[in-house]
Design goal:
Mean pLDDT of chain A: 89
Function (chains A, B): Catalyzes the aminoacylation of histidyl-tRNA in both the cytoplasm and the mitochondrion.
Strand order of the largest sheet of chain A: 1-4-5-11-10-9-6-8-7
Pfam family, one (chains A, B): HGTP_anticodon
Low-confidence stretches of chain A: 1-9, 316-327, 494-498
Largest sheet of chain A: 9 strands, mixed
Keywords (chains A, B): Aminoacyl-tRNA synthetase, ATP-binding, Cytoplasm, Ligase, Nucleotide-binding, Protein biosynthesis
Number of strands of chain A: 16
Enzyme class (chains A, B): ligase
Radius of gyration of chain A: 29 Å
Oligomer: homodimer
Subcellular location (chains A, B): Cytoplasm
CATH architecture of the largest domain in chain A: 2-Layer Sandwich
């Protein structure tokens, strides 16, 4: 092999990760893991079980599911055998799995994994070609709106766990109400999807421009204005009353069904104590065609152009990192009900689904900004590793480094499950050992000296104590009591675990 | 989009995952997660920090690293832009990362992720085209053999955590000793790598066949026999004495360096209390060329053809699942020291590394067999989900299902972080609710009745208690005390958490 070749040849290519991908390491990785573990805990609290599917699927599985975005799919090269492509999302693989596993009648599944889109990357906003999705979906025939309400409850719990509850709003709408509204206003049926996608832009564009797009798509000005009046509606439960009181809308059958769903939903959201977080927004349309009922999108101030621009201005330099100043990070979670997708794979199988996908890279971007602000204010708690104890040795003239003794003490602590390191040198100097411990923000040191060891004792010292603290210099502990003493200290001082 | 198309068209392709890949779900997934979390805990205990790299790399990064196995690499299709390929292992991406991040002088990194090889799959043995590796590597210049010993300590801790410590052996060898041995026996330098790979087969083939291969590769019969004498040596520390006492070997400079390393290693392994798990085995060679020092491989009885065949015979049916009866599952972890790999990417960067890769799919296969045996013996503890409480309702004539009340109690428990579910129906029958709880092996039920609720109470019932148990029928608890009572019960009864 090429170990020798490598030495003689110069590299003829750039040393980097592919476009739109990145390595995760250090505090970024720790923050990402914290997000995953908070989300996973919530998913499990609701009976979620984990599914893992291959990173690539047969090409035919993905074909015809993503509309014009299909051009963004990564194909594998033809090396003989099957045609495969990297997954574009986690929903289609889940539907494929449901179609294959015909004995599954109901399931709450979650899936946290990378997906792939050959899109234009925008790193500052957390938009990458390889990025993570965290999906939770409930499949199966249940009584109306019970799973839908639980998914929304889960959304609130997740952002509560991420300490973002106060900063999010869940925009809600219902496909049946939206489509009924278009029909009632006189939008021809074959134009409903395209007009719907124009309406979906109302969070980014002013009404004039949206109306222009509608007219370009062949809608009469009057009809557009009528639509415009209705889709401005947003608020809480009272919107249902407004719709019911409107003769035009309340006569539409689709809308009647949608209203029945929404009334149940509001009851359930009340029992779940999350009514304060939702906004019934008739302009919410969502891009994907496969939604059949409730749809939702989670936004924060950073989701909008203004909020994002502000947050970027606050960063002293690097403000040009934002590639497109007209768009915020976008929604940070989104989903809805899709009752017909599994049926596309298995003719005889009809299994209704409702779910949510968290955009963790966007959530990561927001939380990282918050952490950086807190770090500037001196409140940072992120440690580069989780090591709790650093075992050191010191001695005078003729000091042999006590390597075997450091190993033996580390061994004792590892046996007790305590995260421990020591300097990997035969004879390290004491300042060097303190430096290593400090670099890792390790909270505790166990210091070995020959005399103390001979008496069966070691010194336990909490690092980073202020001058004058009574335990600043540490204290002697018998080796037999060391594990217990360390565990007590790790509990008592409530040291940040990461 | 194609929701309507899907209904009218028949699927023209097979509904499946690509060859050599699989979905993970249910108890398989739970077992795999248990393995990951046990391994992760050990890695973190030793100060490991996690690295995540993209699933694909620039093709040039992988080129020239895997010898003839390069043909197994999955390429991405050329869709404009860079040439990329799926990663083949986690070691080369780590070396690429080290080469790029020049400020990193020392690191303990771990990485748990999927890798891809277009190999012939053998599902029964856990050999797939998409499979997981769990890698731990220590990079940086340290005093000799200190990190090497810690890696071996980690190996033992991992298998201890997986309750497999008693069933593993770590075979050790040293490239310098092996190469020195070949040279001392008269193997020409240009034949050392190919003879080495013949010797590596001694765990699968009898000596006669290995000797034949050597002769076919151009080695004289006498030289082969001499090699054969030495590589039969295996045992503990005493092998070092045997080598030192051998005039031919002890004169070789490479061997002298290797012996110095091994003596240090045995000292350190003693301090780490893992000497009993290692076997110094002069026939161990390892395939990859980039190793420069210590090499090792972890085997169990199932690693050998005999052990594997036996375990397959014990399974009543399905014995044909094994594709190649001549090979066991192979080693379940392997690694070694590779001091020159990073240098292949960055001429000026020389950063020595030593590491281990756990073959989790093989470990999974072994543990799953064990779990199935235990399940037959009635000791199974794997639960299909982690839900701890099922909230139910019952009532007589005119019973309205108490849905809002069930939601409200579930809400109370979710707020307290307790994993809770309830039947997603407006009016579920009581037997149906018990059936759902039983299907999920949920340990506790909270049962709501109208009268009890009016008095502020609910019934708490431990499921699966034997007839005649004093708490078989459950007991009433005030709603205010419910959370505390459940937490006490979940702790006290030491219910299996999964």
């Amino acid at each position: 092999m090429a170990a020798k070749e490598g030495k003689s040849n110069k590299l003829s290519f750039q040393l980097k990760t592919p476009k739109g991908t990145r390595d995760w390491m250090g505090t970024d990785m720790i923050l990402r893991e914290q997000i995953f573990s908070a989300i996973t805990e919530v998913f499990k609290r609701h009976g979620g079980t984990q599914l893992d599917t291959p990173v690539f699927e047969l090409k035919e599985i993905l074909a015809g599911k993503y509309g014009e975005d299909s051009r963004l799919i990564y194909d594998l090269a033809d090396q003989g055998g099957e045609d495969c492509a990297l997954r574009y999302d986690l929903t289609v693989p889940f539907a494929r799995w449901l179609a294959m596993n015909t004995t599954v009648q109901h399931i709450k599944r979650f899936h946290i994994a990378k997906v792939y889109r050959r899109d234009q990357p925008a790193v500052a906003k957390g938009r990458m070609r390889e990025f993570y999705q965290c999906d939770f979906d409930i499949a199966g025939t249940y009584d109306a709106m019970i799973p839908d309400a639980e998914v929304l409850r889960i959304v609130v719990e997740v952002f509560e766990a991420l300490k973002m509850r106060d900063y999010i709003t869940i925009k809600l709408n219902h496909r049946k109400i939206l489509d009924g509204l278009f029909a009632a206003c006189g939008v021809p049926e074959d134009k409903i999807r395209s007009i719907s996608s124009a309406v979906d832009k109302l969070d980014k564009l002013p009404w004039d421009q949206v109306k222009l797009e509608m007219e370009e798509k062949g809608l009469e000005s009057e009809v557009a204005d009528k639509v415009g009046e209705y889709v401005k509606l947003s608020g809480g439960r009272e919107i249902l009353e407004t719709i019911k009181a409107d003769e035009l809308l309340s006569a539409n059958e689709h809308i009647q069904k949608g209203i029945a769903d929404m009334e149940l939903l509001f009851n359930y959201l009340e029992a779940y104590e999350v009514l304060d977080k939702v906004s019934f927004d008739l302009s919410l349309a969502r891009g994907l065609d496969y939604y059949t009922g409730l749809i939702y999108e989670v936004v924060t101030p950073l989701s909008t152009p203004e909020g994002f621009a502000q947050s970027q201005d606050k960063k002293k330099s690097k403000s040009n990192k934002s590639d497109d100043p007209n768009v915020g990070v976008g929604s940070i979670a989104a989903g809805g009900r899709y009752d017909d997708l599994v049926n596309m794979f298995a003719k005889k199988r009809q299994i209704p689904c409702v779910g949510i996908s968290f955009g963790v890279d966007r959530i990561f971007t927001i939380m990282k900004q918050r952490n950086e602000r807190e770090a500037e204010e001196g409140n940072s708690t992120v440690r580069p590793s989780e090591v709790d104890v650093f075992v050191m040795a010191f001695g005078g003239k003729g000091f042999n480094g006590l390597l075997a003794e450091r190993m033996s003490v580390a061994n004792q602590l590892w046996n007790a499950g305590i995260k421990t390191e020591f300097a990997p040198s035969v004879k390290p100097r004491l300042p060097q050992q303190f430096k290593l411990a400090e670099a890792g923000k390790v909270p505790l040191a166990v210091i070995l000296g020959e005399d103390e060891l001979a008496a069966g004792k070691v010194k336990l010292k909490e690092l980073g104590l202020p001058e004058g603290h009574p335990e600043k210099e540490g204290y002697l502990v018998s080796r037999d009591d060391l594990v217990e003493e360390i565990k007590k200290k790790l509990n008592k001082t409530a040291l940040p675990l990461r």
